[in-house]
Amino acid sequence: MASTSSFYASKLSYINLKTNLFYAVILIIFCSAFYFIGLWQHSIGPIQIANTARTPRSDVTSTSVSCTLPQEINKPQHELDFTAHHHLPDPPPVAARVPYLPPCDAKFSEYVPCEDAQRSLKFSRDRLIYRERHCPEKEELLKCRVPAPYGYRSPFQWPESRDYAWYANVPHKWLTVEKKGQNWVRFNRDRFRFPGGGTMFPLGADVYINDIGKLINLNDGSIRTAIDTGCGVASWGAYLLSKNILAMSFAPKDTHEAQVQFALERGVPALIGVIASIRLPYPSRAFDMAHCSRCLIPWGKYDGQYLIEVDRILRPGGYWILSGPPVNWEKHSRGWNRTTDDLQEEQSGIEKTARSLCWKKLTQKGDLAIWQKPSNHIHCKVNRIVFKKPQFCKAQDPDTAWYTKLETCLTPLPEVSNIREMAGGQLAKWPERLTAIPPRIYSGSLGITAENFRADTELWKERVEYYKTFDGQLAQKGRYRNVLDMNSYLGGFAAALIDDPVWVMNVVPVEAQINTLGVIYERGLIGTYQNWCEAMSTYPRTYDFIHANSVFSIYKDRCEMEDILLEMDRILRPEGSVIIRDDVDILLEMKRITDVMQWESSIIDHEKSPHYREKILFAVKKYWTAPAPHQNS
């Protein structure tokens, strides 16, 4: 039985093996057949695929598939086309406009667009209106770069610049003759020397300032900001700097040729300006002290408008100092070539106007007279019963001061609760004033918090340190003196430079969302308002360094970028530097312009990260001048 079972098992195994062999042979035959059929098809070429999208044909209704050898799989017989085929033709490429900004003629080397002598003749001489700002129309703008005079040299470094300036930079000797006996300026070979004298202080500004210091305290830090109306060559402001008092000096562009230009060349803050029919470009309650030394402003005329304007910009408790006519007229009437009656009348007019403003006359000693503005207006409102004029202004913004007409009303001080309180808030003494929270901030009137103020101060410390890593001239103390910040906000940039031997003109654009210039003055800094679609009231080559934070974003749809850059070029000294912060797209467009302005420029990443859209354009203006007089332009 066992042997029979073994037999059947062996037989069954043989049959299964035979069957498997049969199927294997059949499979090999079929595979070989299909392989040779594939070879035959490939030998006559692949069958084409009809591509109706690429070649529209009405007679093609189906597609067939080609067979390809295995080694040809990664070599496509046709390139695939993924582009759109239903679109408008592309417009022809438009080349970016490359501006042509050649040098101006040498006659424009001292051109100040908004104080042009020829244009001013079109305006009234009444009240010196013709000496106010009168800017060119758009079609009158120069599309060229103002040259430095032939032989121009880098100014002396501060403090030597206080006493010396190169003749080649300001080639005008008229004042050395006209003011010879008053020690304004002397000429010696290739340079000017400034002895520090003035019309009312021929012995020197230092002696004169010491005389003032015997009457009011100039040393305890309570007086930090000052304004000098009719400044001459700004020796008063120059010598006040030794007492940490920062003076804004201004004078018109008149027959005293180049007086403001001399001041700027000396490294002293100054602007071209005149008090005529519009407000001075400063906020209310800006200055601790105002000064006029024979400035020839008719203070008692026009219903006292000019003294009313001084009152607007003078801080509560601030001082007004007057020397020259009519002060001490008993002694000087013959020298001034005026009658005693005329001088007495002028003196009486000034005294009457000052009383109507509630000013107190502190003293008159020798050639000096000093008045003080009240700390608040509690008593002044009461005495309007006696003084019918001026009445207090109504519905006016006391800080608006850009082409704003002068008024014959008195700017009211902020309300106080008692007679001893300082209107607008008590200011800290200098230097604590720089970082103390300004009254306009802690009052909440601007919508800026104390935390915002502190953060802004720290932010600009960091940014200025970053600037100094790539601008070696900024890092080199003494290389720069005159600095411009075109959009200052809270003055953080200037505050970060306080330990450097520079002064900063802080500009708040009139288009800025918040008027913060009052805050800047409350910090003990100085500045002005400006519309950057117009030229600044200053001479060419005023500044060693210009800083512009988001300026071009503000003016993007207001005026041409190249016009603002040309103005920056006009007021920048040869080999001076520029740092511009803005959106990267704006800076890329800007660099195309600066590349034809003889500026060496590069775009640098934001100090936090290269991923920020805000970038920095750093540029240096190359040295070039007008040709020598005997050469063709």
Short descriptors:
seven-stranded mixed sheet, membrane, alpha/beta, 17 strands, transferase, transmembrane helix, disordered N terminus, globular, methyltransferase, 633 residues, 18 helices
Protein architecture, described:
It is a single chain. The protein has helices spanning 2-43, 117-120, 174-178, 205-213, 235-240, 259-265, 305-313, 329-332, 340-356, 378-382, 439-442, 450-470, 472-475, 492-496, 517-522, 551-554, 561-571, 584-594, and strands at residues 164-166, 186-188, 191-193, 225-229, 246-251, 270-272, 287-293, 314-323, 360-365, 368-372, 482-485, 503-509, 527-530, 543-549, 572-583, 599-604, 614-621. With 633 residues, the chain is α/β, with parallel strands linked by helices. Helix content is 27%, strand content 16%. The strands form 3 sheets. Strands 6-5-4-7-8-10-9 form a 7-stranded mixed sheet, sandwiched between helices. It has a 7-stranded mixed sheet with strand order 13-12-11-14-15-17-16.
